[in-house]
Design a protein that fits this description.
This protein is mainly beta. Helix content is 0%, strand content 52%.
Length: 122
């Protein structure tokens, strides 16, 4: 089992930045690829960004490439999502998730955080 706790969400103006954190506990964190997904009101949950267990490979959604970055610190059992140049359409609940392999498909992610709300005002 891996337990994930998301944090760092909040209200920010368009063009601003936020950094989300995800703290993991339980089984070996470094064995898992980590991803962030988001769900806006009335929409399905969608892939945002993910990083391999080593941190060497990253997948991005087209909508966030160049604005969002993901990083991980395996010594601290944590993964981070740095969000810059935020837009109102980035407003959503953001979830971190852990998977045995790097993928954009949420079906391979076995463990999920509780979510943290990000609201971007125009």
């Amino acid at each position: 089992q891996v337990q994930l706790v998301d944090s760092g969400g909040g209200l920010v103006q368009a063009g601003g930045s936020l950094r989300l954190s995800c703290a993991a506990s339980g089984r070996t964190f470094s064995a898992y690829a980590m991803g962030w997904f988001r769900q806006a009101p009335g929409k399905e949950r969608e892939f945002v960004i993910a990083v391999s267990w080593s941190g060497g490979t990253t997948f991005y959604a087209d909508s966030v490439e160049g604005r969002f970055t993901i990083s991980r610190d395996n010594a601290k059992n944590s993964v981070y999502l740095q969000m810059n140049s935020l837009k109102p359409e980035d407003t959503a609940v953001y979830y971190c998730a852990a998977a045995p392999s790097l993928d954009r498909w949420e079906g391979v992610y076995e463990y999920w955080g509780q979510g943290t709300q990000v609201t971007v005002s125009s």
